[in-house]
Design brief:
The longest helix has 30 residues. It contains 19 helices and no strands. Helix content is 67%, strand content 0%. The protein folds into two domains: 110 residues, Topoisomerase I, Chain A, domain 4 (Orthogonal Bundle); 235 residues, no CATH class.
């Protein structure tokens, strides 16, 4: 398959060139309300078109966050439509990921007996998704979810995890199952369609994401919950990149947080954090900073559309997460310096 699509790569770089700058973030963290954040974005950034029909005086947090997520999807559609590459299976990974994210969100809301799912369901996906999200928002039980998904591949993935009557679903088991399905689908598509060099570049980014997610999760389980090795393994995605199975075993058998950091500092990622001047004692923040750095480098160097799209969408997701952190920080009246420390640019 042709993978360079030079015009698409150029289009991605042009869109990325409009992303928020350091001075935008500095202004945003000094706003005092969700309305002020929305107004700044509307008047001073490329979000102006998205927010043009919105009255920023009445906008609430959930609505703004949903609009920001929608903006990433609209950029994705614009890119895959540019050279009509969206018909290829790889480029649909974003749809697959969004559907799985929403299924997992639905399970969380079912467990919590919450109706908030209606407000956050991404109905803007419309005909791009294999799920009718308008009907999906009405689901209130795991049985209803299974019935809704019966004719999709997701049904068989979740069927064996159906909870007993009166019990909640095992969310962690559902998440590992669904994320594993997504990753396997993506790996298969990459290996089937792309050259060895492109495969290697994509797999490096993907496996780095997985390794660092596993590091964050295992660190939390050891530090805050004192979980056993077996319980930690159940919450790990079953894939390995630079964090080999042996290295993973070494860190998940740590005695405590201090021992974990000591062992982790000797791994590839631990050395990368130290070499880049990150605070290895704050593993979660440093892991996310490292993921961001790799994506930024990949986008800068890439000449092939699949890698450019993957890195670009990661960076756009990060921008949205930065904005959500700012909104949350303002909501809880955090000092601007503390909010600034949470964002990655």
């Amino acid at each position: 398959m042709k993978a360079n699509h030079n015009a698409t790569v150029a289009k991605i770089m042009a869109i990325y060139g409009k992303s928020l700058r350091a001075e935008d973030y500095q202004s945003l963290i000094n706003q005092r309300s969700v309305s002020e954040v929305a107004e700044y974005l509307k008047k001073n950034t490329y979000y102006s078109e998205l927010l043009a029909p919105i009255d920023t005086n009445t906008i609430h947090r959930g609505m703004l966050e949903n609009l920001l997520r929608r903006s990433v999807f609209e950029k994705y559609i614009k890119i895959i439509s540019f050279e009509q590459i969206g018909t290829h299976e790889f480029y649909n990974y974003r749809i697959l990921k969004t559907e799985i994210d929403e299924i997992l969100s639905c399970i969380r809301h079912i467990n919590a007996k919450s109706d908030e799912q209606i407000a956050t369901t991404p109905i803007y996906l419309g005909n791009y998704a294999s799920i009718n999200f308008i009907e999906f928002a009405k689901i209130r039980s795991f049985d209803e979810l299974l019935e809704f998904l019966r004719k999709t591949p997701y049904y068989s993935e979740l069927l064996e995890l159906k909870p007993k009557e009166g019990e909640k679903a095992d969310y962690n088991a559902c998440e590992i199952k669904m994320r594993t399905y997504y990753i396997n689908r993506l790996f298969t598509s990459i290996k089937k369609n792309f050259s060895k060099n492109l495969q290697d570049s994509l797999m490096f980014l993907l496996l780095t994401d997985i390794d660092l997610i596993n590091v964050i999760n295992s660190y939390r389980l050891i530090t805050y919950f004192n979980e056993s090795e077996d319980d930690i393994k159940k919450n790990m995605l079953p894939f390995h990149g630079r964090l080999t199975e042996q290295k993973q075993y070494e860190i998940i058998t740590s005695n405590d947080a201090e021992d974990f950091i000591k062992r982790f500092s000797k791994t590839y990622y631990g050395r990368q954090m130290l070499d880049n001047g990150y605070n290895i004692n704050d593993i979660e923040q440093s892991a996310m900073r490292l993921r961001y750095r790799y994506a930024k480098l990949a986008l800068k160097k890439s000449t092939q559309a699949p890698l450019s799209i993957y890195a670009f969408l990661y960076l756009m997701d990060n921008e949205v997460q930065n904005l959500i952190k700012i909104i949350e920080g303002i909501r809880y009246e955090l000092d601007p310096k503390k909010i600034e420390a949470l964002i990655f640019i």
